[in-house]
Design a protein that fits this description.
Layout: E1 4-11, E2 20-24, E3 29-32, H1 41-44, E4 60-62, H2 68-71, H3 74-79, E5 85-88, H4 90-117, H5 131-138, E6 141-143, E7 150-153, E8 156-162, E9 170-176, E10 179-183, E11 206-210, H6 223-236, E12 240-244, H7 250-263, E13 272-275, H8 277-288, H9 297-306, E14 308-309, H10 313-321, E15 326-330, H11 340-347, E16 354-357, H12 366-371, E17 376-379, E18 382-385, E19 389-392, H13 402-408, E20 418-422, H14 426-440, E21 452-456
Parallel strand pairs: 3-4, 4-5, 5-6, 10-11, 11-20, 12-15, 12-16, 13-14, 13-15, 16-19
Antiparallel strand pairs: 1-2, 1-21, 2-3, 7-8, 8-9, 9-10, 17-18
Helix pairs in contact: 4-5, 4-8, 7-9
């Protein structure tokens, strides 16, 4: 084997989204994650560009987990000529199937609506990928277990390790000719409501670590009190509590919290509607993969019986017309699309409406605009006045904060040769760089999008 690895930072470098890291070796070319860029328009437009490397030369894709910004580019990769295996844990691939089919459908619907209502500069507007493209990508999926070294070639092996965050999520260890490359993926919380604590790497020669909250500690706010007060306030105002939610993990956590509040008599029996087809399908996976989470079979069933799952667009409108105070949890979490837009279109200009944001809101998303206090917001080609109250709970995030990230590194026995900070906005990356230096006296690199780095083995 040649004595070097060339790393291509194709996404997730100096930005939070678009995770793609290509390791070029003489035996295999390995892509870690294959996500889309989200947020600012200039980032989203990168999704339409061809990769600076040919998809045909990539031999295998290893997935840390199933979020869109880690798997959403897979159909394009296959369309551009990738013909290898896409490997992840069984729940990661199950979630990825759901997400790719759902996003393909949304891409098709948005292109159709843009053409019909003529709010596009493209003639015609085309979907980023369609259902056929998604199915072709899914046909490349291969599930593997955790905690076991699996050979890719003579001198290369990999291992998945449990990482919390969402169902199926792992960090990836790659042994390349005796040198350990560790990709954190997205690290979960050590005190998550539904998931077990992440495992920790014990050796890392080259470490790639996410920095989404590298400059923050999650608030120690009492989430149960905040939620119960918001719900009671909603009932007093005879209004609606709309919670835009990520379909994977966040939605299920909210269901659990609201059900627990009712169990503890902290809230009345207010109607709770879940309007997220993708979220419903992910909820089913909790039943199929019980070893990946903390919920008992009994708690899962009771939680599901407490809420109403909306299964059709007709039911969406019936819910909007329902005059009762209610809680509506709908996708998407950053208000970038999905069913939540239909509710906001009808209810965002009503003062008795409360919008609760429950996680990271990337730059350029409607969620960030709402969090920053905009007086009007645009979707479906029109502006809508924001008269609803907007609240935010960041401590429900499935991402590790700075303290958790530092904790995640505590079992590493050696001093890494290289540490690359990835998945962060620039202020978070720089703050985390200084914190690592102060805590461990390790040198840190912050790669930029498109950077290429050569590692001597």
């Amino acid at each position: 084997m040649d004595n070097y690895v060339i790393i291509h930072f194709l996404g997730g470098a100096s930005v939070v989204t678009g995770s793609k890291f290509l390791l070029e070796t003489s035996e295999k070319n390995i892509l870690i994650d294959c996500g889309v860029f989200q947020g600012l328009k200039n980032l989203r437009e990168l999704n339409w560009s061809f990769l600076p490397v040919s998809a045909k030369v990539i031999d295998v894709v290893l997935l840390t987990h199933g979020h869109l910004d880690h798997v959403g580019y897979l159909p394009r990769l296959v369309k551009h000529g990738f013909n290898g295996k896409i490997i992840g844990t069984a729940p990661t691939l199950a979630i990825s199937e759901i997400i790719l089919r759902d996003s393909a459908k949304i891409h098709e619907e948005e292109a159709e609506k843009a053409n019909k209502d003529k709010y596009t500069k493209h003639q015609p507007a085309l979907p980023f990928y369609n259902l056929v493209d998604a199915e072709k990508a899914i046909s490349h999926f291969q599930a593997e277990v955790t905690d076991k070294w699996i050979s890719l070639s003579k001198h290369i092996a990999y291992r998945f390790q449990y990482n919390g965050h969402i169902l199926g999520a792992t960090f990836i260890e790659l042994d390349i000719n005796g040198k350990r490359f560790v990709f954190s993926g997205d690290v979960g919380r050590f005190n998550d409501y539904l998931l077990h604590a992440p495992k920790k790497p014990e050796w890392a020669d080259i470490l790639f670590i996410e920095s989404t909250y590298g400059n923050k500690l999650h608030d120690t706010e009492n989430i149960e009190d905040i939620l119960s007060n918001l719900i009671k306030d909603t009932i007093n105002k005879k209004g609606n509590l709309i919670i835009p939610s990520f379909a994977v993990e966040r939605l299920q956590t909210l269901m659990y919290l609201i059900w627990k509040l009712y169990q503890k008599n902290k809230i009345p029996n207010i109607p709770v509607f879940i309007d997220s087809p993708m979220g419903n399908r992910v909820l089913e996976l909790f039943k199929h993969f019980p070893e990946w989470h903390k919920l008992t079979h009994s708690d899962y069933n009771n939680m599901c019986q407490h809420i109403t799952i909306i299964t059709s667009y007709k039911e969406t409108w019936k819910t909007i017309d329902d005059k009762r105070s209610k809680i509506i949890i709908a996708g998407s979490g950053m208000v970038t699309g999905g069913r939540v837009l239909t509710y906001l279109q009808q209810l965002i200009d009503i003062p008795s409406t409360t919008i609760l944001l429950v996680g990271y809101q990337a730059e350029g998303t409607r969620g960030r605009q709402l969090k920053d206090g905009v007086h009007e917001i645009r979707f479906f080609g029109k502006y809508y006045p924001v008269k609803a109250q907007v609240r935010s709970i960041e401590s429900l995030s499935a991402h590790a904060d700075q303290g958790d990230l530092l904790n995640w590194m505590t079992n590493i026995k050696n001093i890494p040769e290289k540490i690359f900070l990835i998945h962060g906005e620039l202020n978070a990356l720089d703050a985390f760089r200084l914190k690592i230096k102060d805590t461990y006296n390790w040198n840190v690199t912050i790669p930029k999008l498109g950077d290429v780095e050569k590692i001597i083995l």
